[in-house]
Amino acid sequence: MKTQSIYHKHADDILFNLLKNDDQLAYTELFERYSVILVNHAYKMLGDRDDANDIVQELFLSIWNKRRDLILTGSLSSYLYKATKNKILNHIAHEKVVARYADSISNFIENDYVFADSKIREEELHAIITKEIDLLPDKMRQVFLLKKVEELPYEEIAHKLNITDKTAKQQVYNALKKLRERLHPLLSVFIMCLFVLFIIIS
């Protein structure tokens, strides 16, 4: 408790400098200090609590991974708000791209440009993705399926698997990253679009 109280009293710039020197307690303090505020900020723009949580989680993961290279030209709070806003805009842009591809694929099918073997190709694609999901580490696969297939909230997943919300979010993030890395060299742009749609609708 003494250590936590000391970090709680530190100003942002001191915590930031400690973070750059690999201090995990400083990172935890910054996360606890700003995560709720940033999630609420993201939620107001997105209207989806899970997406807002994911964006803030990814932001802080990025900050930790790039901590030694980060340079602040203003306040830390200003940097965090701008970084969150940029991630939100990227998320919205991505969703628009996915929606555009979804419309294109739908039109493609409706206009009879997909031939009789399209169903076979879809089944083959689904089999590839399913196989890659099965290859994920056991705990990561469990969390991923509970979130993306059963659509459970992170809180319920954490309770069901006896882990923290933070760990559940991290596992989903890692699973998506692994799947993208494995599937990217194997699939064409068209198939990658279907993969994104599979993740969204699953």
Q: Can you tell me about this structure?
A:
- The chain is an all-alpha fold and about 200 residues long.
- It has two domains: about 1-90, Rna Polymerase Sigma Factor, Chain: A (Orthogonal Bundle), CATH 1.10.1740.10; about 115-200, Winged helix-like DNA-binding domain superfamily/Winged helix DNA-binding domain (Arc Repressor Mutant, subunit A).
- Helices cover about 80% and strands about 0% of the residues.
- The protein has helices at about 1-10, 10-20, 25-45, 50-65, 75-110, 120-135, 140-150, 155-160, 165-185, 190-200.
- Helix 4 packs across helix 9 and helix 7 (about 140-150) packs across helix 9.
- It is globular.
Return the average pLDDT rounded to an integer. 75
Just give the CATH class of the largest domain. Answer: Mainly Alpha
Low-pLDDT ranges:
108-118
Largest sheet: none
The rounded distance between the terminal residues' Cα atoms is 43 Å
Query: From N to C, what is the helix and strand string?
Result: HHHHHHHHHH
Number of strands: 0
Fourth-level CATH superfamily of the largest domain? RNA polymerase sigma factor, region 2, helix turn helix motif
| Percent of residues in β-strands | under 5%
Instruction: Identify the overall geometry.
Output: globular
CATH topology annotation of the largest domain? Rna Polymerase Sigma Factor, Chain: A
Question: Total domains, how many?
Answer: 2
CATH architect. name of the largest domain: Orthogonal Bundle
Helix percent reads: over 70%
Instruction: Compute the number of helices.
Output: 10
